[in-house]
């Protein structure tokens, strides 16, 4: 299905939530489609967030699919803990593995969706031939590591390239954008061909997070 034929997927990132009351923070985004879980190891990115135990705790407090973004070195070593923690999609960085296709095949063999992500400085073209091995591509529109950064519109070029490739080959791959998504940037991401939108600060800094989720979905509906 091309992007136009499905309603926009809004995935609040709990990196921007209040970690002292994650159950309430998950409740606050009950209108969301997915929950985006930003795992950071302090090596692949210069920040440390949370790991599999928090991911497991999150899965106990929501029925929404967990979109787990691994910003970690050596993802092969750790993916099982996120599968066991209840991830519905595990997204690793192509810069952190020698063999993204084998890792994707392993994830799918374990019954979870396989996603890859790439830093703003990494080209998408080398990964197009293997797109059919994946269920999701997470295009970073900020340098990974922190929430609240400025949207990088030039990254939408990758989205346009992906949209063309996916539609021309009739693939079922979700294009998700991550970083600096807000009411003022989401429409251009939708125009470029995104299916799913991560939003951390735009949702959790809002007066009413669910209103922000509703507004983002409306703005992304073409
Ligand atoms: C950054 C993370 C993003 C970030 C999004 O490394 O991957 O998911 O939390 O936060 P905002 O929406 O505030 O840019
Ligand atoms: Zn993320």
TrEMBL record:
Transmembrane segments: none annotated. Its EC number is 5.1.3.1. Its cofactor is a divalent metal cation; Co(2+); Mn(2+); Fe(2+). It catalyses: D-ribulose 5-phosphate = D-xylulose 5-phosphate. Binds 1 divalent metal cation per subunit. GO terms for cellular component: cytoplasm. It is an enzyme of class 5 (isomerase). GO terms for molecular function: D-ribulose-phosphate 3-epimerase activity; metal ion binding. The active site is at 38 (proton acceptor), 178 (proton donor). Pathway: Carbohydrate degradation. Keywords: Carbohydrate metabolism, Cobalt, Isomerase, Manganese, Metal-binding, Zinc. One of its GO terms (biological process) is pentose catabolic process. A divalent metal cation binds at residues 36, 38, 69, 178. InterPro entries: Aldolase_TIM (IPR013785), Ribul_P_3_epim (IPR026019), Ribul_P_3_epim-like (IPR000056), RibuloseP-bd_barrel (IPR011060). The keyword NADP does not apply. Belongs to the ribulose-phosphate 3-epimerase family. Catalyzes the reversible epimerization of D-ribulose 5-phosphate to D-xylulose 5-phosphate. NCBIfam families: PRK05581.1-4 (NF004076), rpe (TIGR01163). This is Ribulose-phosphate 3-epimerase. The gene is rpe.
């Amino acid at each position: 299905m091309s992007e136009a034929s499905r309603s926009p997927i809004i995935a609040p990132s709990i990196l921007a939530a209040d970690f002292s009351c994650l159950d309430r923070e998950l409740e606050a985004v009950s209108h969301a489609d997915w929950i985006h879980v930003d795992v950071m190891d302090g090596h692949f990115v210069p920040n440390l967030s949370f790991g599999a135990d928090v991911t497991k705790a999150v899965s106990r407090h929501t029925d929404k699919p967990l979109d787990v973004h691994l910003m970690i070195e050596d993802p092969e070593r750790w993916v099982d803990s996120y599968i066991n923690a209840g991830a519905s999609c595990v997204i690793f960085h192509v810069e952190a593995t020698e063999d993204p296709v084998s890792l994707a095949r392993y994830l799918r063999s374990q019954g979870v969706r396989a996603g890859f992500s790439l830093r703003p400085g990494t080209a998408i073209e080398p990964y197009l031939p293997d797109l059919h091995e994946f269920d999701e591509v997470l295009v970073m529109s900020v340098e990974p590591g922190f929430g609240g950064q400025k949207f990088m519109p030039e990254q939408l070029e990758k989205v346009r390239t992906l949209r063309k490739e996916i539609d021309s080959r009739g693939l079922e791959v979700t294009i998700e954008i991550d970083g600096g998504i807000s009411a003022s940037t989401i429409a251009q991401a939708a125009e470029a061909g995104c299916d799913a939108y991560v939003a951390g600060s735009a949702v959790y800094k809002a007066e009413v997070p669910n209103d922000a989720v509703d507004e983002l979905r409306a703005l992304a509906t073409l």
